[in-house]
Amino acid sequence: MNNRNKVLQFEIDGVSYGLMLFFVRHCVWASEILPLPFAPPAVDGVVNYHGKIIPVFSARKRFGLRKKALETSDQFIICKIPIKGTETISEVRPEKPAPKPRTVAFLVDSTSGVVEYTSDFFTSAERIANGLAHVAGVLKLPNELVLIHDLGQFLSDEEELLLDNALHKIQVPAVKHSA
User: Fold this and answer.
1) Is residue 23 part of a domain?
2) pLDDT in tens, 142-167
3) Are 62 and 106 in contact (CB under 8 A)?
């Protein structure tokens, strides 16, 4: 099986969720999140990830879950967000230059591993209900159901624009060095 049939399973408040593995790059321990003025409500702030400032997405805020303080056991799932309107990061119209996918940190309580599945155990969001925002589908495991987040739809177009503007305001201009 390839990464299209794998999900990284994680927990928030003891409930299992998942992200399609082909969007996931790394899992790291969470660190201090700096507030990002003018960011959309589903963005907790920003973190420095290997010298790059990246936004932190909050499933807690997006789904109206209770707020909690950052704990030492919390993790960031570092992901590449697909370009809107495409299934994967690599699917871009050849007539247009490919926009760079957005690197983000997704804040979770813990990760529990990678689950491989066949299509028999996955139900797409469209088959559950029309207009299920932010959800790719549900994975049926022997003892639980796992709600799979759709990171490509995590932010609306308007929220994407707000985030771009907020990030642009904090970027430090390059310093010219004189010879």
Assistant:
1) yes
2) 888 888 888 777 888 888 889 989 99
3) no
Q: Letter for the amino acid at 167?
A: L
- 19 within some domain: yes
d(CA 91, CA 85): 9
Radius of gyration, CA atoms only, the chain: 17
Number of domains in the chain: 1
Res 48 pLDDT > 90? yes
pLDDT at position 92, please? 40
Q: What is the pLDDT of residues 85-94, one digit of tens each?
A: 444 434 444 4
- Structural domain for 48, as ranges: 3-87+100-170
Whether the full predicted model's pTM is greater than 0.90, yes or no, is no
30-59: b (≥16 Cβ within 10 Å) or e: beebeebeebbebbbbbbebeeeebbbbbb
Quote the strand ranges of the chain, DSSP E: 6-12, 15-20, 24-29, 43-49, 52-58, 75-81, 102-108, 110-116, 122-124, 135-140, 145-149
- Of the candidates 20, 35, 27, which has an alpha carbon nearest to the alpha carbon of residue 76? 27
- Res. 8: pLDDT tops 90: yes
The tokens for 117 are 């599945």
Q: For residue 94, is it within any domain?
A: no
